[in-house]
Amino acid sequence: MKRVLTIAGSDSGGGAGIEADIKTITALGGYACTAITALTAQNTLGVAGVHPIPAEFVKLCIETVLADIGVDAVKLGMLTNEAIIRAVASVLPANVPIVLDPVMVATSGAVLLPDGAIAALKDELLPRATLVTPNLPETAKLTGLPVGSEDERIAAGRALLALGAKAALIKGGHGDDERLTDYLVTAEAVEAISLPRLHSRNTHGTGCTMASAIATGLAQGLTLLDAANRARHYLQEAIRTAPGFGAGHGPVNHLAKPL
To answer: Domain limits of the chain?
Structure first.
């Protein structure tokens, strides 16, 4: 059983953040450890409040896990503010895969990372990332580039590599094509992962789920492409079989099996 440390915010609704990460890692056969960066009061309709955890305590959680349990991969999600970003960067292990999900805006539209912290994320964490997994709005925000076409999305992925990431997965969920296509961009190649788009309101926590699934695959020794493929198929089935809870963007079914 491989150990995955997720560093992210808590979602009281259970569909995203730490809760989604733990469910995903467990469903795919990993062991989840956590460092919580913020408590959020939220449901499928939106985020009612955010309570950041002190940066030094987040750092202590990470150090305590590393000192005893150890990790085989790290997943980074909602990091809340610049102080937490810099604290996390100071204690990240150097010898394990790191999957960075640059959480900036919730599915409901709530801002989860202020503009002032984005520069710290680009400076401190992008160069440490084995893989960065932005959606299309996050890709545009990080690179300042358009992301409307296939060529533009691939170019933006290469721009993220130029900022220091070893690989970028440009996710197509916010597009409107009938097929949902993610582009895995590395220095060596561009791989497209394409599946039929599921028209569903149950997409809360999909970014968290995808990143955690990839981190688990990397911890288990899968190649980057195989981990991304398994994660995308797992998430596809999790959306298809979503329980339908709530009146807004509902959670996915984390007990789903990859197709």
So the answer is: 3-240
* Residue closest to 164 by CA, chosen among 231, 72, 107, 102: 102
182 contacts 147 by C-beta, under 8 angstroms: no
**Mean pLDDT of all residues belonging to the chain:** 95
Q: For residue range 4-59, what is the model confidence (pLDDT) as tens digits? A: 999 999 999 999 999 999 999 999 999 999 999 999 999 999 999 999 999 999 99
Is there a catalytic annotation at residue 207?
Answer: yes
State which H helix or E strand residue 33 sits in.
Answer: strand 31-43
pLDDT recorded at residue 107: 62
Q: Where are the beta strands (DSSP E) in 44-173?
A: 46-52, 73-76, 98-100, 131-132, 167-170
Annotated catalytic, 206? yes
Give the dihedral sign, CA 236/240/241/244.
positive
Predicted pLDDT of residue 175 = 74
CATH class of the region 3-240:
alpha beta
159 sits in which H/E element = helix 150-162
pLDDT at 99: 98
Active-site residue (options: 13, 205, 217, 250): 205
Q: Is 203 a catalytic residue?
A: yes
Eight-state DSSP code of residue 12: T
Task: Decide if pLDDT at 60 tops 90.
Answer: yes
Which positions ≥6 away from 11 have C-beta within 8 Å?
A: 17, 18, 19, 20, 40, 42, 205
